[in-house]
Amino acid sequence: MLKYFTSGESHGEALVAFLSGLPAGLDVPLDFVNRELWRRQQGYGRGGRMKIERDTARILSGVRHGKTIASPISVLIENRDWKNWQEQLPVETGDPKLHKRVASPRPGHADLAGALKHNFPEARYVLERASARETTARVAIGALAKLFLRGLGMEVLSHVVAVGAAHVQREIMWEEIVTSCRREEILLNCADPEAEPRMKEEVDKVLRTGDSVGGVFEVVAHNVPPGLGTYAQWDERLDAAVAAAIMSMQAVKAVEIGSGVTAAYTAGSAVHDEIGYEAKEGYTHFSRPRNNAGGIEGGISNGEEIRVSGYLKPISTLRRPLQSVDFATRETVKAAYERSDVCVVPAAGVVGEAMVALTLAKFALEKFGGDSMLETRRNFEGYLQQLKSF
């Protein structure tokens, strides 16, 4: 059973991630993990925090001599900004006069709901954990899940479909996504060179006006075999788990698998992917001319690419704040402002990759098992032979 969780605050000393359940013998090149962390920090419209942090992973346990050893893995990512917050957010009592209050909640943020829930007099502690800075830890362990899936021939990547009113108007193929993600200079991680400049204009617009902008990213899992997940129980369906993983991300307000949104307004004959049969090498001889299902039918992967989109609302911290209420006086004031981004859609795509990879790794381990990568691969290859002879 693959299990994971994260800890740490936005301006705390460090972020920590824990991952348990990976088989022994998986190669873990640290440069791959650190590149994933680097990718998360890129993108046009990121704020000043990304100029401070240089996220790198320090693996404390579970990996020795470059390989997993089947014990729980813990990963630490230091916050360089901690040096500016040690007196404001000490572990011990410290000087209360140095505490930086979040005096008025930001509309669209967890500030008010969190303060009400925990009976906090203001929202500093809510901000610290609710911040998307936490996703750094998810990307670190998501990189390990990606390495595990690679060992079974699967890959997970993302690309940006829309920023504000600018959006891609054609289907993006896997090879285009690979090329986009390999770029050393990431603008908006859009695989369509015609759409990306229009997306940049959307970011420039909100930069000028002190606003923020959201968008849509798509995560694509390539070479996933049929058979992950089940229709037998509601909480064991692959589509339910994938949707929950993407929905768990900060600022995501909607999730779509395949053409799920437009499918609701379309006749069934135009939605469902017809089935053909071809004599060729691969997981199965069955084929589809299109992939409206997004690679999942009845809660089970069907052998096509898994495609899931996350719809990201604009960041709730605005340089021109909206109306709010002071926690102490209850008077009408402007919402609090914390240094922030104006567009995080490319970074959210990288986090989405991590969440999909962790979900697929969990389902793959449940199906194929194995205490070592040798055993897992043997079980996996046996299943592929079963599919080929179906």
What does this structure look like?
The protein is of the alpha+beta class and 390 residues long. The protein has a single domain, classed as Chorismate synthase AroC (Chorismate synthase, AroC fold, 4-Layer Sandwich), CATH 3.60.150. Helix content is 33%, strand content 18%. The chain has twelve helices and 17 strands. The mean pLDDT is 94.
Mean pLDDT: 94
Sequence of secondary-structure elements: EEHHEEEEHHHEEHHEHEHHEEEEEEEHH
Main sheet properties: 5 strands, antiparallel
> Low-confidence stretches at least 5 residues in length (pLDDT < 50)?
none
> Pairing-aware structural class of the strands and helices?
alpha+beta
Helix percentage: 25-40%
Number of domains: 1
Tell me the fraction of residues in β-strands, as a range: 15-25%
Beginning-to-end CA distance, first to last residue: 28 Å
- CATH class term: Alpha Beta
* Total helical segments: 12
Compact description:
By secondary structure, the protein is an alpha+beta fold. It is 33% helix and 18% strand. The longest helix is centred in the C-terminal third of the chain and has 24 residues, at 345-368.
Keywords:
390 residues, alpha+beta, Chorismate synthase, AroC fold, 5-stranded antiparallel β-sheet, 4-stranded antiparallel β-sheet
In terms of topology, how is this protein built?
Blueprint: E1 3-7, E2 14-20, H1 30-41, H2 49-52, E3 58-61, E4 63-64, E5 67-68, E6 73-78, H3 111-118, H4 124-130, H5 135-150, E7 155-163, E8 166-167, H6 174-181, H7 196-209, E9 215-222, H8 238-247, E10 252-257, H9 260-263, H10 268-271, E11 276-277, E12 286-287, E13 296-297, E14 300-301, E15 306-312, E16 323-325, E17 332-334, H11 345-368, H12 373-388
Helix pairs in contact: 1-5, 1-11, 5-11, 8-11
